[in-house]
Amino acid sequence: MSIRDEEITVLGGGIAGLASATALAQRGAVVTVLEQATELGEVGAGLQVGPNGVAVLEALGLRETAAAVANVPDAVELLDMASGGEVARLPMGQAAVQRWGRPYWQFHRADLLTVLSDGARAAGVDIRLGRQVDTIKDISASVVIAADGVRSATRSEVFGGQPASFTGQVAWRGIIPAETLPKGAVKNAATVYMGPGRHLVTYPMRGGTIINFVAVEERNSWADEGWNIPDDPENLRRAFSGAGQDVQSILNAVDETFLWGLFNHPYLPQWTKDNIALVGDACHPMLPYLAQGAVMALEDAWVLARELDRSGVTEGLRAYERICKPRATRVQKAAASNATAYHLNSGPSRLVAHAGLKVISRLAPSALLGRFDWLYGEDVTKLDLQR
Q1: What percentage of the chain exceeds 70 in pLDDT?
Q2: Is residue 203 annotated as a catalytic residue, yes or no?
Q3: What's the gap between Cα 306 and its chain centre?
Q4: How confident is residue 177, by pLDDT bands cut at 50, 70 and 90?
Q5: What is the pLDDT of residues 279-318, one digit of tens each?
Q6: Stated pTM of the model
Q7: Nearest alpha carbon to residue 264 among 199, 322, 200, 335
Q8: How does residue 355 score in pLDDT terms, banded at 50, 70 and 90?
Q9: What are the residue boundaries of the structural domains of the chain, listed by start?
Q10: Rounded-to-integer distance, Cα 41 and Cα 225, Å
Q11: Cα dihedral sign for 54, 369, 336, 233?
Q12: Which residues of 128-152 are buried (b: 16+ CB within 10 A; e: fewer)?
């Protein structure tokens, strides 16, 4: 079987859509991407790609171009928000390569999208911008790949997606020029400041010249689910009042931020139907507590293209869902559980949890890293070696 010369339409020019389009076109399919935005890219957002995602970029032939715009953190640090004291440290850098075979990368989202869009065009993908699709029925193609994001119209139209429920958490995001921060405040690490009912994540991008931040707070009031709702930075600073000096220094440098509500989406009973498949956030939206949303989209893209090429449309779509769905669901659940770990209230449970992490981090760092073997150690591209 082969998908050579099959006409495939991909809805959405984000990470899931562009990666899918590239993987399909490299196998000979005639691929068109329809993106409603008039230009690709996104201002003010960072993302992290673990070794399991790097494996896909490598298999797509994009490792060199991606590495040129990636930041390689020395570690993932978990810190107490009030004191700034270290709770745990997971070495990355060379340690990630030694353990999982590939590095851990951080990107400005627009940079990764450029890498993917250039790769897609080089593979022969036709990317059409400013194209709004009102209904899936308007598309005539052998296969339709819906990579239309967390608010997927295809999920609602074809798969009967159920309404999402507000988690009681909101997040601010934004970018800070590193030069505006106090000396020593910029670390080459993914840093998580943990406090009761809230946490702050920071990491550098573009050679350490800018710092990405995501700040999460538990609250009763509802916020729209979306990425580009401007908010007053003073609201962010008030939400984190009482935090330690490190956090205050970071947030005092924020002059622009965006707010979005975090929502739980019911697990879909199926990702494929007839000649239609969902990929990425369209089928498994994730809370941002494990930094795997973009990576799962990359894994989806590779497996989908491989299975279609191996087995044809009908069997290939079924195989894609069978392979990817259990893993993505596990990652979704793990991401949700991290929210509880980050936001432990003051008291005995928080003290015990933090003390346990400190002991493991200092005495058995390999054991701490081992907790992520199931995630970062997975390589969905290696199955090709068995062909």
Answers
A1: 90
A2: yes
A3: 22
A4: very high
A5: 999 999 998 889 999 999 999 999 999 999 999 999 999 9
A6: 0.92
A7: 335
A8: very low
A9: 7-163+265-386
A10: 19
A11: negative
A12: eeeeebeebeebebbbbbbbbbbeb
* Three-state DSSP class for residue 17: helix
Length of the chain: 387
Residue 24's nearest CA partner among 128, 149, 112, 124 is 124
Res. 117 pLDDT band, cuts 50 70 90: very high
Place of tokens 């199931």: 374
The pLDDT confidence band at residue 362, using thresholds 50, 70 and 90, is: low
Q: Which residues lie below 8 Å from residue 327, measured CB to CB, with a gap of 6+?
A: 296, 299, 378
Compute the chain's Rg from CA coordinates.
Answer: 21
What is the average pLDDT value for the chain, to the nearest integer? 89
> Which residue has tokens 């270290």?
86
β-strands 189-195, 75-80 pairing: parallel
Range 354-360 contact pairs with CB under 8 angstroms and sequence separation of 24 or more: 354/80, 354/87, 357/78, 357/87, 357/88, 358/86, 358/87, 358/88, 360/88
**Residue-wise over 59-96: b if at least 16 C-beta within 10 A, else e?**
bbebbebbeebbbebbbbbbbebbeeeebbbbbbeebb
Element (H, E) at 263: strand 257-264
> Apex CA 111: angle with CA 128 and CA 249, to 5°?
135
Token code pair at residue 277: 């498949």
pLDDT in tens, 18-46: 999 999 999 999 999 999 988 876 655 89
Yes or no: domain 7-163+265-386 corresponds to CATH 3.50.50.60? yes
Burial of 287 (0-12, 13-18, 19+ CB in 10 A): buried
Catalytic residue among 203, 289, 342, 376: 203
Alpha-carbon distance of 319 to 304, in angstroms, equals 8
| Among 221, 95, 127, 227, residue whose Cα is nearest residue 174 | 227
Tokens of 351: 């003290």
276 DSSP β-pair partners: 144, 273
Question: Which runs of consecutive H residues, i.e. helices, occur in the chain?
Answer: 15-25, 51-59, 63-69, 94-100, 109-122, 153-159, 233-239, 245-252, 293-342, 348-363, 365-370, 373-376
